[in-house]
Amino acid sequence: MLLISPDFLDSEFIYTRELPLALQRHKDREAVVIPVILRPSLWETEEFSGIQALPKGALPISQWENEDEAYLDVAKGLVRVIRSIQ
């Protein structure tokens, strides 16, 4: 999971070490990358923007009227992905 926030996008460590490896493993079908949008950010301009994000509609969790519903939506999405790869 990529926990997307402005802090994530601003992290040099993530961009130079973690993200390239995760995206390559995703491309090689060795892993599944799932962006989870926590807070508003310009993630749509990033290399991983073509990967289906959670929660539904890629609405940041912090902007949901009820954050518990947002986290439930993320959990359901993760369960769907896990079941699809088993």
Structure explained in plain terms:
By secondary structure, the protein is mostly helical. The chain has one domain. The protein has 3 helices and 2 strands; from the N terminus they run βααβα. The protein has helices spanning 6-9, 12-27, 67-85; strands spanning 2-4, 35-37. Strands 1-2 form a two-stranded parallel ribbon. The longest helix has 19 residues, at 67-85. The two termini are 17 Å apart.
Structural shape: flat
The Rg value, from CA coordinates, equals 13 Å
Query: Which sequence of SSEs, written as H and E, runs from N to C?
Result: EHHEH
Low-pLDDT residue spans: none
The percent of residues in helical segments reads: 40-55%
Topology readout:
Blueprint: E1 2-4, H1 6-9, H2 12-27, E2 35-37, H3 67-85
Parallel strand pairs: 1-2
Produce a short descriptive summary.
With 86 residues, the chain is mainly α.
Structure characteristics:
about 90 residues; mainly alpha; 3 helices; about 5% strand; flat
